[in-house]
Fold these 3 entries.
Entry 1:
Amino acid sequence: DAGVIQSPRHEVTEMGQEVTLRCKPISGHDYLFWYRQTMMRGLELLIYFNNNVPIDDSGMPEDRFSAKMPNASFSTLKIQPSEPRDSAVYFCASSSRPEGQPQHFGDGTRLSIL
Amino acid sequence: KQEVTQIPAALSVPEGENLVLNCSFTDSAIYNLQWFRQDPGKGLTSLLLIQSSQREQTSGRLNASLDKSSGRSTLYIAASQPGDSATYLCAVSPSNDMRFGAGTRLTVKP
C-alpha cells in the first residue's frame, strides 16, 4: 500500500490567499484525521471523519478553516483567508479502527504564510 | 480535558545504552495509548499500540508498558543505536481521536 499521501509537501503563499491541502487516505480506512503541528502547541487534532462524515471539528481554530471529505479516497483542508499564524506542518492520518489499530500518518504539508 | 506530559524533553545517550522514556496522562478513561517516532521533516510512524485492557507491548528492542490507574506509560529501548535518534511521541485516545504529548527528542551518539 502507498500509505497516506498528502499534497503539496510545501506551500508558501501570502497572507489573505486561499490555501487548499489535500489528502488521500489508505484504501479501506474508515477514519481520517487532520492535525496541525507547531513548535509552540505541538500536535493538535483539528477534525476527524468517519465514513466521510465529520465527527468532531472542535479543534478547528476558526471559521477560516474548513474540511471536506467528498469520498472515501480524498479529503481537503482549506484555509481562507490565510494568516501568518496559520504557518505550521499539517498532517493527515487514517485508521481502520482507531480504538484498536494504529493511525498511519502522511509526511505532512509544510505551510508558510508570509 | 486530557493532558499528556512527556519527560524528559530531550535525552542524549551513548550507543548501546538502555533507556526509558516516560509519558503521563491525566484521565485514565482511554481506549488506547500509542508511541510514535518522528524523524525531522517526516510524519509520525507508529511504534507500539497498547489497548486499554493490555499492560504492555513489545516489538524488537522496544517495550511499552501501560498503567492506566496511575496514568503512566513507559517506552523502553534496549541497546540503543544511532538510528534510534528521533523524537518519540506518546498519544492517548480518549475516544476515536488522539491527544499527543510534546515528545522526547532522543540523540544516540556513536
Note: The radius of gyration of chain B is 13 Å.
Entry 2:
Amino acid sequence: AQTVTQSQPEMSVQEAETVTLSCTYDTSESDYYLFWYKQPPSRQMILVIRQEAYKQQNATENRFSVNFQKAAKSFSLKISDSQLGDAAMYFCAYRSATQGGSEKLVFGKGTKLTVNP
Amino acid sequence: KAGVTQTPRYLIKTRGQQVTLSCSPISGHRSVSWYQQTPGQGLQFLFEYFSETQRNKGNFPGRFSGRQFSNSRSEMNVSTLELGDSALYLCASSRGGHTGELFFGEGSRLTVL
C-alpha cells in the first residue's frame, strides 16, 4: 500500500517570504500522480498543484512550485511571496494511475502553515 | 457554477443511532468520493462511486455504506454509531476521467455523543 508522509506538522513564514513544505511517499508503482491540496479554516479543500510522475519537469502554478524527485520519492511544495491568504492546512496526496480509473487519494497528515504579517 | 454541496453541515447523534449524509456533485461530474477526516487519523478514503457503481472502497467496517443515484448525487450511511465515528466527512466530485482533480465540499461535521 502507498503511504504519504509529511514530517512538518506546523510551519510558519513571514509575509512576502518563501517557505517549503516537505512530502515523501512510498510506492512500488512507476505511474502515478501527486498533489498538494490546501484546506483553509473554512474547511473546503482546493487543489494547489499537480504533478504527473512521468513528467520530469516540475509543476508550477503562479507562486506555487514543486520539487519532484522521483528517485528519492520526494515532492516538496514551495510557496513564494507568501500572503496572509496562504495560511491553511496543506495536504500532500498520492494517486495511483493504475487502479482501474479510481481516483482514490492517499493523503499525508498535513502541515499547518501560519503566515505572519 | 455551483460547487459540491454537502448536507447537513453539522449534526449531533448518540451512540447506536444511524446517520445519512448527502452530497450533490458539481453538474456534469459523474464520480463521487467520500473521505473521513479526524485529528488522529487524518484523511482516510471511504469509498468512490462512478455512474452509480462503487469503484473503490476503503478499509472501513460494514457499518459504513454508500450509494450513488442516477443524477450522480450520493449518500453515505453510518449505522450503529460509535464515539470514534465523530469526524468531518468530506465529499469530492470529479468528471471521472484521468484529470486527477477532485473538487471538495465543505464537509459534514458529525459529533457522536
Note: Chain A has a mean pLDDT of 94.
Entry 3:
Amino acid sequence: LAKTTQPISMDSYEGQEVNITCSHNNIATNDYITWYQQFPSQGPRFIIQGYKTKVTNEVASLFIPADRKSSTLSLPRVSLSDTAVYYCLVGDRQTGANNLFFGTGTRLTVIP
Amino acid sequence: NAGVTQTPKFRILKIGQSMTLQCAQDMNHNYMYWYRQDPGMGLKLIYYSVGAGITDKGEVPNGYNVSRSTTEDFPLRLELAAPSQTSVYFCASSYLPVPQGAQYFGPGTRLLVL
C-alpha cells in the first residue's frame, strides 16, 4: 500500500501561493495521486488528480516529479476561504476504495 | 441536482439502540461509499458498493451493515450502538471507481452515542 506523509499544518498570508507537498515513497506504477479539500463540518471536495508531470485546473495545480515519490499541490493566491484541511490520496484503480486512505491531511490556515 | 444527501444531520443514540443513516444520490453513480471521521482524524472507509445489489467491506466494517437495493440509495445500519461509534458519517458517490473517479460527498451525519 502506498502510504502518504503530509505536513500536519501550514499557515499562509492572504494572496500568497501555497505549496503543500505529499510524500509517497512506495507509490506503485498504476497509482493515481488525488487531492481533496475539507472545510469544517463539511464532506471532502475533490480538487485535482494526476498521474505524472503537471496537471492544472481552475482551482489548483499538481506537480509530480519523474520518480513520482512525492507530489505538490499548489494553490495560487490563497484567500481566507481556502482555510481547510487538504488530503493527499494515492491508490490504483485495480484495488479501488479499499486501498485509498485519507490520512490526517494538512490543515491550512490563511491569515489576513 | 441535489447531489448526495444524508439524513439525519444529527442524532443522539443510547448504548444498544439501533438506527439507519440514510444516503441518496441523484447523479446516477454506480459507486457509493460510507466513511466515518473521528475528531481530528482522516476518513475511514466502512463499506462501499459498486452497484445495486453489490456491497463490500472497507477498513472498519464491524458494527455496521449496508444494503444497496437501488442505484440511488445506500443506507448504513448501526446495530447495538456503542460509544466507539460516536463520529461523523459521510456518504459519497462516484461515476467511475476510485481513484479514477472523483468522489462527491454528502454533508455528513453527526452521531453521538451515550
Note: Chain B is about 0% helix and 50% strand.
